[in-house]
Amino acid sequence: MKRAVLILGFLFCASPTLATITLVQSSSQTESGAQTRTCTLNSVVAGNALIVTAGQWRGSAISGKPTVSDGANTYTEAFSTDAGAQHSKGIIWSAPNVAGGTTTITVTAADTGASDLDVACYEYSGLITTALLDQANGSFVSGYTSPNDQTTGNITTTNANDLLFAFAWNASSGTIPSTTGASFNSRQGTSNPDGEASRGADRIVSATGTYNNTFQVSVNVTNFHVMIASFKGVASGSSASTIGGPSTMGGPTIRQK
């Protein structure tokens, strides 16, 4: 009898299963000659994470960086690239443990005056609620020649259960980049009528390691940004937004006679 009780106690006290990282929804918007651009996510689940990407181009030098806000959540830059004299920038932000409900995200161009903006936003479940970013890397390429693979550069993750999120921003043609990395899923693609385009891509990994993603554009371009960031999924014993509050389940009490 005691052995049976001990086995039951072990089963009930076993570590919880890792949360599954899932893309819940996404949205995108483009605008030519604007200072701001918005994208909206409906019925966001409280505690989930949001990821926002943006590419900005303007006809003169960009001295700052685009900014992001939705009036309720705090966004942190994961990675950004700067084309310098070619007047374009790409950026990824993230916000963990967000407020629930319909969320309208506004990206504001750096500096005053009209810019072209491509913006995409994503909601994910299964990510941790604090210290979300694991690793990030990226680069700007001047003079990309099709059909070569352009790599984001490597990241070496420190968390076994990670979301890898990659972003490509073609700031010199309206051709949407394609993702060519192994096991990456192609996500939101944007194409601006003034001649810029972007692509998001993601992959879920269950072991630490060194990862990257590659993108291609089907035409030669002079202004190409690529980057990757890894975001931590919930680990054994941690909490994820869609799992709810702490578990009240416990093993039976063993009394010695």
General description of the model:
The protein has 257 residues and is mainly β. The chain has one domain (20-235). 5% of the residues lie in helices and 48% in strands. It contains one helix and 18 strands. The chain has one helix spanning 2-13; strands at residues 22-34, 36-44, 49-57, 67-69, 76-82, 88-95, 101-108, 115-125, 133-141, 150-151, 155-156, 162-170, 178-179, 185-192, 196-205, 210-211, 214-216, 224-232. Strands 1-8-3-6-5 form a five-stranded antiparallel beta sheet, with no helix packed on it. A five-stranded antiparallel beta sheet has the order 9-18-12-15-14, with no helix packed on it. A three-stranded antiparallel beta sheet has the order 2-7-4, with no helix packed on it. A hairpin with a 3-residue loop joins strand 14 (185-192) and strand 15. The two termini are 12 Å apart. Mean pLDDT is 85; it is low at 1-16 and 241-257.
Chart the SSEs and their pairings.
Blueprint: H1 2-13, E1 22-34, E2 36-44, E3 49-57, E4 67-69, E5 76-82, E6 88-95, E7 101-108, E8 115-125, E9 133-141, E10 150-151, E11 155-156, E12 162-170, E13 178-179, E14 185-192, E15 196-205, E16 210-211, E17 214-216, E18 224-232
Antiparallel strand pairs: 1-8, 2-7, 3-6, 3-8, 4-7, 5-6, 9-18, 10-17, 11-16, 12-15, 12-18, 13-17, 14-15
